[in-house]
Design a protein that fits this description.
- By secondary structure, the chain is an all-alpha fold.
- The protein has a single domain, classed as 23S rRNA-intervening sequence (de novo design (two linked rop proteins), Up-down Bundle).
- The chain has 3 helices and no strands.
- The longest helix has 35 residues.
- It is elongated and about 55 Å long.
- It starts with a helix and ends with a helix.
């Protein structure tokens, strides 16, 4: 779970450090994949009894919020890239 959560934020950081929209977007997609891995880890942890249902619900809500923010950022990057293509 630690690796998936850290991978998500690291991919965002690495994508931000790129100079091209397409690369940044690709790293955001990888970050999104890591968040879905984290959801799978949460489900497994709950099913195996490592965490309580309430902890699962709280964790899932945080991941869903992170996905919303990441999708919004990715959409912003795509719009910016398309704007640059039409104006530049």
């Amino acid at each position: 779970m630690r690796r998936a959560s850290r991978s998500s934020t690291r991919n965002i950081a690495e994508g931000y450090g790129r100079y091209y929209y397409k690369e940044n977007i690709q790293y955001c997609r990888q970050s999104r994949g890591s968040l879905y891995e984290l959801i799978d880890d949460l489900i497994t942890a709950r099913d195996e009894g490592y965490i309580a249902e309430q902890e699962y619900i709280q964790g899932r809500a945080k991941i869903e919020r992170a996905l919303q923010l990441l999708n919004g950022y990715t959409n912003y990057l795509e719009r910016s890239m398309n704007k640059k293509k039409t104006h530049g």
